[in-house]
Amino acid sequence: MPEIKYESGNELPAMEETVEVSSESILFAKYELGKLLGYGAFAKVYHARNVETGQSVAIKAVSKQKIVKGDLTGHVEREISIMRRLRHPHIIRLFEVLATKTKIYFVMEFAKGGELFAKVAKGRFSEDLSRRYFQQLISAVGYCHSRGVFHRDLKPENLLLDEDWGLKITDFGLSAVKNQIRPDGLLHTLCGTPAYVAPEILAKKGYEGAKVDIWSCGVILYVLNAGYLPFNDPNLMVMYRKIYNGAFRCPKWTSPDLKRFLSRLLDSNPQTRITVDEILNDPWFMKDYKEIKLYEEDLELKNHDDNNELLNAFDIISFSSGFNLSSLFNKSDFLEEIERFASIELPERITGKMEEVAKTEGVRVVRKKDWGMKLVGHNGNFAIVMEIHRLTDNLVVVEIKRRLRDDEPSQDFWKEKLRPQLSALMYQPEGQVTDRRRNLKSEAPGKPDAMH
């Protein structure tokens, strides 16, 4: 980040209107693409409009070829997996993932205010304004850490602003989750942006994800208040040496309380560096602090546990077909479609009904463990796999996976034979269905090259 001209200011500039670009490009008969907002080596981000609701969204288009060639498939899958579990007022929300044979599309919340970087580049913020954004940042970062997610690339370029000037964290492409932690309790992947990277990452001895995020937050706070970086030098190795030694100086306008607070954030020793809990009790941080109100459903979210027999709210979200990753990079001759529905019937009755229909039609049945079952067509031209997951004591979710050969047309056994027989067992909530409940019964795409 280049050195910024020093200009004080409490107020942000007037919101710039997004320039709409007419386009005949309609994605999946749902999103009208507009202005190109930005681009990188692997992706382009567009402003788009939902043609049904008129809602503005941001769509990140990622090239499958470049991802596979760069061996980044795991990164993309992890980013989707991480973003789908995060729901916080100051984190960009991922609505759904779409895919064609050549591209993957992230449909995300649109932040009309653009990058925070662009605003601070015009002049440093006042201490009060810096504190306000830092409070929002820590609320979101603490939320991520409580769910086992570590961003690892926090910087002003990855902080966006909504139409009300609220902060939004984006770009979880370098994020890590708890299951990446090695037996020594540390992460070891070298990542991040040079000027914001923590000294323990440079030491290459392993690091704690939460600690390096706090360091980056400290650099961000410094930049907001000063207008330039705490550690900077044209020579990268010289800059790394400054970071490793924690050598920085605050500008003369920095208050004593903020200097003290920054020294705790930018402590080169991760063991004595301030924690999120300590930040939430710091006098400088707590001034005019308003607790961030989370969405009601987020208060019930638990960390995902594969060994938990009862599905939690995270599992419900992940059942959205918009987050199905199984066929993103599938090069098989088979097409896989997935449908899910809820039922208040006993699992034994559901499997019994499915087996009854299969036998009537002469379809081979293979029982799987627990409440699973596989149906195979006469000549292997289709396979249907059913799995039942218990959601509550009275509610289950039935997942149906179908595989069809795209070069061999055949009767759709699921839609024409099996589904009509199971329809009476499908649970339909009374009244209007919310988006999250609707995810429990999501139709598979009609087109073979798309995933909704």
From TrEMBL:
<keyword id="KW-0067">ATP-binding</keyword>
<protein>
    <recommendedName>
        <fullName>non-specific serine/threonine protein kinase</fullName>
        <ecNumber>2.7.11.1</ecNumber>
    </recommendedName>
</protein>
<keyword id="KW-0464">Manganese</keyword>
<keyword id="KW-0418">Kinase</keyword>
<keyword id="KW-0723">Serine/threonine-protein kinase</keyword>
<dbReference type="GO" id="GO:0106310">
    <property type="term" value="F:protein serine kinase activity"/>
</dbReference>
<feature type="region of interest" description="Disordered">
    <location>
        <begin position="426"/>
        <end position="452"/>
    </location>
</feature>
<feature type="binding site">
    <location>
        <position position="60"/>
    </location>
    <ligand>
        <name>ATP</name>
    </ligand>
</feature>
<feature type="domain" description="Protein kinase">
    <location>
        <begin position="31"/>
        <end position="285"/>
    </location>
</feature>
<dbReference type="GO" id="GO:0005524">
    <property type="term" value="F:ATP binding"/>
</dbReference>
<dbReference type="InterPro" id="IPR008271">
    <property type="entry name" value="Ser/Thr_kinase_AS"/>
</dbReference>
<dbReference type="GO" id="GO:0004674">
    <property type="term" value="F:protein serine/threonine kinase activity"/>
</dbReference>
<comment type="similarity">
    <text>Belongs to the protein kinase superfamily. CAMK Ser/Thr protein kinase family. SNF1 subfamily.</text>
</comment>
<dbReference type="Pfam" id="PF03822">
    <property type="entry name" value="NAF"/>
</dbReference>
<dbReference type="InterPro" id="IPR004041">
    <property type="entry name" value="NAF_dom"/>
</dbReference>
<dbReference type="InterPro" id="IPR000719">
    <property type="entry name" value="Prot_kinase_dom"/>
</dbReference>
<dbReference type="InterPro" id="IPR017441">
    <property type="entry name" value="Protein_kinase_ATP_BS"/>
</dbReference>
<keyword id="KW-0808">Transferase</keyword>
<feature type="domain" description="NAF">
    <location>
        <begin position="306"/>
        <end position="330"/>
    </location>
</feature>
<dbReference type="InterPro" id="IPR011009">
    <property type="entry name" value="Kinase-like_dom_sf"/>
</dbReference>
<dbReference type="Pfam" id="PF00069">
    <property type="entry name" value="Pkinase"/>
</dbReference>
<feature type="compositionally biased region" description="Basic and acidic residues">
    <location>
        <begin position="433"/>
        <end position="452"/>
    </location>
</feature>
<dbReference type="InterPro" id="IPR018451">
    <property type="entry name" value="NAF/FISL_domain"/>
</dbReference>
<dbReference type="GO" id="GO:0007165">
    <property type="term" value="P:signal transduction"/>
</dbReference>
<keyword id="KW-0547">Nucleotide-binding</keyword>
